[in-house]
Amino acid sequence: MKKASRFSTKALVWLTALSLVFFFTAAASAGSYKKEYKMTLNVGPQFYWGMGATMFAKLVKQKTNGQINIKPYWGSQLLKGAQLKSPQMVASGVIDCAYESTINSTPVMPEMNIFSLPFFINNFKNLDKMEYGETGKAIFAVMRKKGLEPLAWAENGFRQVTNNKHEIHLPKDLKGLKIRVVGSPIFIDIFRKLGADPVNMNWGDAVTAFQQGVVDGQENPLPGVAVTVQIWQYQKYLTRWNYLVDPVIVYWNKKQFDKFPKDIQKAIREAAVESARFEKALCRAGIDDGSSLKILKDEFNYTPKITDPVAYARSKGMIVTDLTDAERQAFIDATKSLYDKWVPKIGKDLYEKAKADMAK
Ligand code: X2X
Q1: From the alpha carbon of 218, which atom of ligand 1 is closest?
Q2: 293 in a domain, yes or no?
């Protein structure tokens, strides 16, 4: 009897100790996650890019069994509209993650201007070769050095110019037009070279400026942005010139990301890649060789409301201009000298990598 009771006392002590260890370990790991992870992006939920961000948050929650909850903060509200501050705020940890345009990263990482070199990339094939090639690797390495963990390439798209005055076929048609641009200096340079009068403005103020006619034009991708804000209400001339492209990158504060357990890291990364694949396909649907509509249907069982954004814009009264080769050449010639200024800022190495990727 005595022996048995001694044994059970010992067992009880052990059991208690063990359960305390379990309790504290569980409490510590539960406590190591925040209640809410803040995500910044420059647009609202109704934009394709916003839909990608919503999907990312949903997938992260699913794949981490509810452990990681991301809250999207739309329209750069955490930055009071100052869209160009996103990478800096994520790097400092004030914001946890971002689903954000590469243009908005250019003040912190001038290398991102590789996508803004005028008439350099021109089509989706070239862009993909860069993103998934040596250029993409080099850009991700730059991000890591800045304290950001890149997770996936999403998209805003090739940017097209719209205005409320007349069709744009040649640089002379831009002369004197007041064009809203993002506050990234290469945009000012390009439009000045083309003879326009660029004004930089945060996106949060831009739509009011369109409504009030404070500006004559703007430049943004057609499917993901111009259609969403129904640009034809203010500006009915659209020139599809693919002059530069705006990828979106999903990224996280690196210090925080590195501290997550491996399974959480994997879940977040997979959610980013999956949502980005969906979002990229949305942005390209109806303006590529048909593969994006197929991806949406086959992989996501999804058919977008607008399957032909150009026809849709025309149906709303837009005059859509595609450039002839000679017209396009006139724009290339007019902006070529900007490479002398911008390639050194971007880095000659990265520029060569991009050319090599595209040539593959
Ligand atoms: O400000 C813009 O034009 C937008 C929405 O495209 C970006 O955030 C770069």
Answers
A1: 3
A2: yes
Report the pLDDT value the prediction gives residue 1, as an integer from 0 to 100.
43
Q: How far apart are CA 297 and CA 247, in angstroms?
A: 23
| Domain contains 98 | yes
84: CA distance to ligand 1 center in Å?
10
- Which residue's alpha carbon is nearest to atom 6 within ligand 1? 220
Q: Residues near ligand 1 with C-beta < 6 Å?
A: 42-43, 83, 101, 103-104, 156, 182, 203, 220, 225, 246
Question: What pLDDT digit, counting tens, does each position of 128-171 carry?
Answer: 999 999 999 999 999 999 999 999 999 999 999 999 999 999 99
In a domain, 5, yes or no: no
266-292 confidence digits (pLDDT tens): 999 999 999 999 999 999 999 999 999
0.85 exceeded by the pTM? yes
Asked if residue 16 is part of any domain, the answer here is no
Average pLDDT over every residue of 198-210? 97
Beta bridge partners of 322: 240
* Residue 164: closest CA among 232, 97, 219, 101: 232
Kindly give, in sequence order, each residue whose CB lies less than 8 Å from that of residue 165, ignoring residues fewer than 6 positions away: 177, 216, 217, 237
Query: Which domain covers residue 147, as residue numbers?
Result: 35-359
- What CATH number has the domain bearing residue 238? 3.40.190.170
Q: Which residues contact 288 (CB under 8 A, 6 or more apart)?
A: 124
Tokens of 91: 């790097």
| Mean pLDDT confidence for 204-222 | 97
- What's the total number of domains in the chain? 1
Give the Å distance between the CA of 260 and the centre of ligand 1: 31
Residue nearest to atom 1 of ligand 1 (CA): 203
Distance in Å, CA 42 to ligand 1 centroid: 7
Q: How far does the centroid of ligand 1 lie from the alpha carbon of residue 204, in Å? A: 9
DSSP 82: -
Q: How close is the Cα of 279 to the center of ligand 1, in Å?
A: 16
